[in-house]
Specification:
By secondary structure, the protein is α/β, with parallel strands linked by helices. It has two domains: 161 residues, Rossmann fold (3-Layer(aba) Sandwich), CATH 3.40.50; 121 residues, N-(1-d-carboxylethyl)-l-norvaline Dehydrogenase, domain 2, CATH 1.10.1040.10. Helix content is 51%, strand content 13%. It contains 13 helices and nine strands. Strands 1, 2, 3, 4, 5, 6, 7, 8 and 9 form a nine-stranded mixed sheet that branches. Strand 5, helix 6 and strand 6 form a beta-alpha-beta unit. Helix 8 crosses helix 11.
Length: 307
């Protein structure tokens, strides 16, 4: 069976990993990003480079975007000579960015008026799972369109969950990120208290991991705190963007997110102190500075790898 031609736009830490899974599976993929250097490994593996969005869309059956903000997504897809101007009628735009739900719904209507089908497919589970094809993909949109690209999505992700109508996946995606940020703050506090009492942070980490208080975030990102790298390949800017999205939805729906709004304020403060390019687990550094104690233990990894 002939594999569908794919245009892939956005090669940050997440996008490059997702695209790598497609290239390894033998899909004809044309890639585009503002920084060509981010495509080096993909080009060596067999991808084709385009200097423009238009070139990435040319002859494509599917165009996938993985972009850092709603504003960038808007520019890439509906800006002059963007995706909507160049993807053929009947083609499918898959938005894998974590983006503004209302804007996505508007863009979906614009695309449909041009004969372009749309799916939202945000991913969750950690950037480290993108390269291995084990990341979870949440799918929103027409089920018939989902069926057309299901095999492609199975190449990208381990678990593919169809969420229903457009918008559903975006809501659940930002909720999962909110939980991760809350868990990260909580894990930092949970490890700091025993450390101040004199407990070995390694012993505390292992005790929490084996307890009812365990979480996926503790099992993964706490390791990066203990190694001192903090490098989860996800920045403060992205964390604040996602927390803004989830709290914005909650405001519209009248849902009081007390922990969600508190997490947003904590991350805003961390970004103010450490900058937007600081890694999201560096939120724990604020607590380390307040307590004048770094949470460190030997033998912990400086980056997360798929197991």
């Amino acid at each position: 069976m002939t594999k569908q031609k794919i245009g892939f736009i956005g090669l940050g830490s997440l996008g490059e990993g997702l695209c790598n899974s497609l290239v390894k599976a033998g899909h004809p993929v044309t890639v585009n990003d503002l920084n060509k250097n981010l495509a080096t490994k993909l080009l060596q593996a067999g991808a084709t480079w385009s200097d423009t969005t238009a070139g990435a869309c040319q002859d494509a059956d599917i165009v996938i975007t993985v972009l850092p903000s709603p504003a960038v997504s808007r520019q890439v897809v509906e800006g002059k000579n963007g995706v909507f101007d160049n993807l053929k009628a009947g083609g499918i735009w898959i938005e894998m960015s974590t983006t503004d739900m209302d804007d996505l719904l508007r863009l979906s209507d614009v695309a449909k008026a041009k004969g372009i089908k749309v799916l939202e497919c945000p991913v969750t589970g950690g950037v480290h799972l993108a390269n291995s094809g084990e990341i979870t993909v949440l799918v929103g949109g027409e089920e018939d369109t989902f069926k057309q690209v299901e095999d492609v999505l199975k190449t990208i992700g381990g678990e593919i969950i169809y969420m229903g109508k457009m918008g559903n996946a975006s809501v659940v995606k930002v909720v999962t990120n909110m939980l991760a940020f809350i868990h990260l703050i909580a894990a930092g506090e949970a490890m700091m208290l025993p450390a101040k009492f004199g407990v070995d942070p390694d012993a505390t980490y292992r005790a929490i991991r084996a307890s009812s208080g365990n979480s996926f975030v503790h099992e993964t990102e706490s390791k990066l705190v203990l190694s001192g790298s903090y490098n989860v390949k996800f920045t403060m800017d992205l964390a604040c963007k996602d927390l803004g999205l989830v709290n914005g939805i909650a405001e519209k729906l009248g849902v009081p997110l007390e922990l969600g709004s508190m997490a947003q304020q904590i991350f805003r403060r961390a970004r103010g102190l450490m900058g937007g390019n600081a890694q999201s687990p560096e939120v724990v550094r604020m607590l380390e500075k307040a307590c004048d104690l770094e949470l460190r233990a030997p033998g912990y990894p400086t980056e997360l790898l798929a197991e």
